[in-house]
């Protein structure tokens, strides 16, 4: 299970804006290119563990601050699909 978590965290922490947009579209989440770029720049270099509830909440609070609470909720929905 730990290997699985490391792989997912690595993907999340190194995702590009284009990949995030594709993933959002696949999951019917409304994220525009500007928001995707902001989210990716926020996550770069932070090595966030999305399986840790506290870390995920801090990241989502930062995402809400630079985009909107609704966008942060959408990103949280995406993260929750990974941690199931």
3D structure, described in words:
By secondary structure, the protein is mainly α. The chain has one domain (2-83). It has 5 helices and no strands. It has helices at residues 2-13, 17-26, 33-43, 53-66, 69-83. Helix 2 (17-26) crosses helix 3 and helix 3 crosses helix 4. It is globular and about 35 Å long. It starts with a helix and ends with a helix. The mean pLDDT is 89.
End-to-end C-alpha gap: 12 Å
Strand tally: 0
Largest sheet: none
Order of helices and strands: HHHHH
Tally of alpha and pi helices: 5
- Beta-strand residue fraction: under 5%
Tally of individual domains? 1
Rg value:
12 Å
List segments where confidence is low: pLDDT < 50 over at least 5 consecutive residues. none
What general outline do the C-alpha atoms trace? globular
| Average of the residue pLDDT scores | 89
What's this, in brief?
The chain has five helices and no strands. It has helices at 2-13, 17-26, 33-43, 53-66, 69-83.
Task: Chart the SSEs and their pairings.
Layout lengths: L1 H12 L3 H10 L6 H11 L9 H14 L2 H15 L1
InterPro entries: DUF2624 (IPR020277)
Pfam families: DUF2624
Protein name: DUF2624 family protein
Identify the notable features of this structure and list them briefly:
84 residues; mainly alpha; 74% helix; DUF2624
């Amino acid at each position: 299970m730990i290997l699985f978590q490391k792989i997912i965290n690595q993907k999340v922490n190194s995702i590009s804006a284009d990949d995030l947009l594709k993933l959002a579209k696949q999951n019917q989440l409304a994220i525009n290119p500007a928001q995707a770029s902001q989210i990716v720049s926020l996550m770069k270099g932070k090595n966030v563990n999305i399986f840790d509830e506290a870390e995920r909440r801090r990241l989502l609070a930062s995402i809400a601050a630079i985009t909107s609470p609704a966008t942060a909720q959408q990103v949280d929905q995406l993260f929750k699909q990974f941690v199931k």
